[in-house]
Hints:
Elements: E1 9-13, H1 18-22, H2 27-70, E2 78-83, E3 86-91, H3 92-131, E4 133-137, H4 139-151
Antiparallel strand pairs: 1-4, 2-3
Helix pairs in contact: 2-3
Amino acid sequence: MKIMMASSWTCFLQLRNMAEKAGSDGRETMNEQAIANTYSILRSEMNQLYSKITEIEMEVSEHSLVIGAIQPLDPSRRCYRMIGGVLVERTVKEVLPAVQRNKEGLEEVITRLNEALEKKKKEIAEFELKHKIKIRKSDNEDKNDNNRKEGSAQGVLVGPASEQGV
Length: 166
């Protein structure tokens, strides 16, 4: 199974007695690799939760737009709704409550996913403490951060001085 870690983060394990373990028969390296793989899986699961929450929040936003658009309309007006890939004709009176129920259901799912995300964050924090995992930014990211800091400073942009005006 191929596990991809976040490209900008590198995981460094700092375990006790690293010098002593370097001379061992290689079993410690396997343990470190297993720990790194498990940690990578946990981080991947957390990222998947973030992605799913974002996706469902966008759906809630779309539902809100639809509700806002059809709520002021005449309840007997024709309305079309996509159900399972099939476009069906209904009235605003029939569609509005269904869209509102769907929105409420999506909001409940977001709540549950946020709870799962918090549990996953705690699990990762406990795993980091248990295995003494430290996360450091890579050298490239440190350089990018420095460039962003320099570029984000507010001030006046001054071009090259001309010999006539100075």
